[in-house]
Specification:
Helices cover 70% and strands 0% of the residues. By secondary structure, the chain is mainly alpha-helical. Helix 2 packs across helix 3, helix 6 runs parallel beside helix 9 and helix 6 packs antiparallel against helix 10.
């Protein structure tokens, strides 16, 4: 399988769809780097456990090494920056998880557990960050576009899964969509618990869900 291109800020198709959150889209490499540094600064602050209410334009500008004027040149405020961050993470998580589908696996369960582990680490390892992102997806009206990316990932899982499940492709793809939907349900539920469920538990639950659906819908001949 040919290597997948590495996404860059507002260089990928998904990120471009989120560029509406910018006052203007950076064209030159220097301005793209500046915008990328601001988005990265928010990502880093959330990853350290900061709440979105604690994050300020001043702290973001300082961390990114840019002036406050440069921040407002591209972003109207924290909500527009959150929209850009969701776009970046949506594309990068898709690429990251898709690459995991290329992992060597001798059987279906091994592959499912590898992907489940990657999903758990991607979405639960930094719970505060993902809580902010999940809530922003709903509040900023981004559910539909994120859902399309989830279905796109399910389509890739279908292609990979046919190695082990030579069933009707349409039926298998629907199963993969159910698994992807269920996995996100497990993730959101885990994040909303206090304390959040850990990576190991989420990985087990996603893998059990996936294998349960695949066995029931495709592998159980009884």
């Amino acid at each position: 399988m040919p290597p997948r291109p590495k996404p860059s800020l507002f260089g990928g198709a998904v990120e471009q769809a989120f560029s509406r959150f910018l006052r203007r889209v950076p064209k030159q490499s220097r301005s793209r780097a500046l915008v990328g540094a601001i988005v990265q600064a928010l990502d880093e602050e959330l990853t350290t456990g900061a709440s979105i209410d604690d994050v300020t334009v001043e702290s973001l500008s300082e961390r990114a090494g840019v002036g406050i004027g440069s921040f407002y040149e591209y972003f109207a405020g924290k909500d527009s920056l959150l929209g850009a961050l969701v776009g970046r993470l949506t594309e990068r998580n898709f690429e990251h998880l898709s690459a995991r589908l290329d992992a060597e696996a001798d059987d279906l369960e091994t592959l499912v557990r590898l992907v489940a582990r990657e999903i758990a680490e991607t979405y639960v390892a930094h719970p505060q960050r993902m809580k902010v992102v999940v809530h922003a997806i709903g509040r900023l009206g981004l559910i539909a576009i994120v859902g399309r990316e989830r279905d796109r990932f399910a389509a890739l899982m279908t292609v990979r899964g046919r190695t082990f499940v030579p069933d009707d492709p349409a039926r298998l793809e629907r199963t993969m969509q159910l698994i992807a939907d269920g996995a996100m349900g497990i993730v959101v539920s885990a994040l909303d618990r206090d304390p959040p469920n850990d990576v190991e538990q989420v990985a087990r639950e996603v893998a059990d869900l996936g294998m349960g659906l695949l066995t029931r819908r495709h592998l159980d001949s009884s």
